[in-house]
Amino acid sequence: MQSKDQVFQQLVKIMQELFEVDPSQVHLDAQLSDDLDIDSIDAVDMAAQLQEMTGSRIEPAAFKEIRTVQDLVDATHALLTEKGIELNA
Fold first, then answer.
1. What pTM does this model have?
2. Domain containing 44 — which CATH number?
3. pLDDT-based confidence at 88, cuts 50/70/90?
4. Residue 20: which domain range?
């Protein structure tokens, strides 16, 4: 079973690689758009990355509700748990 902390760590890596976000700025309460400057185009890239990571896509309506890193961790963790997928460290 994947822990939420493992999911968080993987998402920090993705944000650093895709969007050049400083990992020290990524915390659970961080707002994706306001604090991390992840815009709507970046969100599409993030959704594609999550689909690759989980084997499932987050429904557009659900993805629009993701505002914070915690929301992103929760949604990703739920997909991984549903599919029984383990992340590689």
1. 0.88
2. 1.10.1200.10
3. low
4. 4-83
